[in-house]
Specification:
155 residues; alpha+beta; 3 helices; 6 strands; globular
Length: 155
């Protein structure tokens, strides 16, 4: 995010119970602005959730992946999660865009509902068709990417 004077700063949503009393009483989350300019983001691929053709339902075999991602997010309260949904080449552009979004949303809903992760920390992006994957199965996925701002002086 850029300020009015063009300075780049990082934003993070942090649960109130992780702020040691800095949040307003009764608030569920507080938006924090990092104290210095962002020099870069640390981004890490945490894993993938694969899907059956034309489906957006997360199968039980991926619960352990989601449980581990939830644990990592709890341990890193300023980290954000980006869910990138992909499809194989079958279907129209509109169908694939919708399916990619439904897949990312299904993963987000499970992280929120089953593991208590604040939905404000999770973004979804419909990437659409993945023409680079070596197989149709590998194309039908949601990538789970954690991003953490690295704050400090440039240089």
């Amino acid at each position: 995010v850029h300020t009015e004077d063009g300075q780049e700063v990082a934003l993070a949503v942090v649960p109130a119970d992780r702020l040691d009393g800095a949040a307003a009483p009764g608030s569920a989350a507080t938006l924090l602005v990092a104290s210095g300019p962002v020099t870069r983001f640390e981004e890490r691929l945490l894993g993938d959730v694969y899907f059956t053709a034309d489906e957006a339902q997360v199968t039980p075999q991926y619960r352990l992946v989601l449980e581990n991602v939830a644990r990592m997010l709890r341990e890193a309260p300023t980290a954000l999660l980006e869910l990138r949904g992909y499809t194989d080449p079958r279907g129209t552009v509109q169908e694939n865009g919708s399916l990619a979004e439904r897949r990312a949303t299904a993963v987000k809903e499970l992280l929120v509902r089953l593991y208590g992760i604040d939905g404000l920390r999770i973004s979804t992006t419909a990437m659409g068709v993945d023409f680079t994957s070596p197989s149709m199965l590998e194309a039908r996925r949601v990538e789970l990417r954690m991003r953490r701002p690295r704050v400090g002086d440039a240089g």
